[in-house]
Design goal:
With about 80 residues, this protein is mainly α. It contains three helices and two strands, in the order αααββ. Helices cover about 50% and strands about 10% of the residues. A two-stranded antiparallel ribbon has the order 1-2.
Length: about 80
């Protein structure tokens, strides 16, 4: 059985994805944009894929392809 991803990293990812900004996510979560970036990188390493395309001024979500053997409604 695979362990859950780091929950704080998921929380940070959700905020960054919603805002499309590490700076705005950091303000919402009362952390620096660098801390947001580190948490996102932790989640990306755990999942083995890139979640954001990073540019100097913005971040955009990458299209993520979920393997067919992953059941989102397991339980």
């Amino acid at each position: 059985m695979r362990h859950l991803p780091p929950l704080n990293a998921l929380r940070v990812f959700e905020s960054a994805a919603r805002h499309r900004s590490f700076v705005a996510a950091g303000k919402e979560l009362f952390v620096t944009s660098s801390a947001v970036s580190h948490q996102v990188k932790t989640l990306e390493e755990y999942l083995g894929l890139s979640l954001f395309d990073r540019s100097r001024r913005a971040v955009t979500l990458t299209p993520v392809h979920i393997p067919a053997n992953v059941n989102a409604h397991s339980g």
